[in-house]
TrEMBL record:
This is UPF0056 membrane protein. It holds the Pfam family MarC. The chain crosses the membrane at residues 6-30, 42-68, 74-92, 119-140, 146-169, 181-199. GO terms for cellular component: plasma membrane. It is found in: Cell membrane. InterPro entries: Multi_antbiot-R_MarC (IPR002771). It is a multi-pass membrane protein. The keyword Magnesium does not apply. It comes from Cognatiyoonia koreensis.
Length: 209
């Protein structure tokens, strides 16, 4: 995991799952009418909360699996299937609509601050993110590699923060068509990574060569 190709793979997987570019229009919608200072505050609180949740799942995720008697190989297969379904949603443009629906439903129950819910949870740290974190830490061998996973998480979260701060600019720059193209390309990459997780799990059971 400390080798550059493994780190790039981990970064790519988390970047696609969290999808900072896809979150920017939702961030704009959830912070409409706020001043730039208020928007910055929401972005900071959302990213700090998401970071704390990521740390919890990085440190305790595999322990929880062991407690309930689930092997990492079984979780790799299940996680790969979940990520593959997410990739299909991205390819057919269903994921953005679903996330927008979650955001709108949550916003209807909120007065002002969407930073904890729905931004941090479940939009940044959703089921796909949790699954990916547990899979990556399960592949880590030793504390140095767990720290490397933590560094990748921090890098992706930093990109989310920057995307939130420049949300209006990114939306104008890419436009709806640009965002759709980026989402579909990332969906293809995620589908390939999901298949790799499934193959790794099958190998753990002595299947798949």
């Amino acid at each position: 995991m400390t080798e550059l190709p493994a780190l790039i793979t981990a970064f790519t997987t988390l970047f696609i799952i969290i999808d900072p570019l896809g979150l920017t229009p939702l961030f704009i919608a959830l912070t409409q009418g706020m001043t730039p200072a208020q928007r910055r505050g929401v972005a900071i609180r959302a990213c700090l909360t998401a970071g704390a949740l990521m740390v919890v799942f990085t440190l305790l995720g595999e322990a929880v699996l062991n407690f309930v008697g689930i092997s990492m190989d079984a979780f790799r297969i299940a996680g790969g299937i979940l990520l593959f379904l997410t990739a299909l949603e991205m390819l057919f443009q269903r994921r953005q609509a679903r996330k927008a629906g979650e955001a709108n439903e949550a916003a209807s129950h909120l007065d002002d601050d969407p930073s904890i819910f729905p931004l941090a949870l479940p939009l940044i740290v959703g089921p796909g993110t949790i699954t990916t974190i547990i899979l990556l830490t399960g592949q880590a061998d030793g504390s140095a590699e767990v720290l490397a996973v933590g560094g990748v998480l921090f890098a992706v979260l930093l990109i989310v923060f920057v995307a939130f701060l420049s949300a209006s600019f990114l939306e104008r720059l890419l436009g709806r068509t640009g965002l759709n193209i980026v989402t579909r390309v990332l969906g293809m990459l995620l589908a390939a990574l999901a298949v790799q997780f499934i193959l790794d799990g099958l190998r753990g059971f002595g299947l798949g060569g």
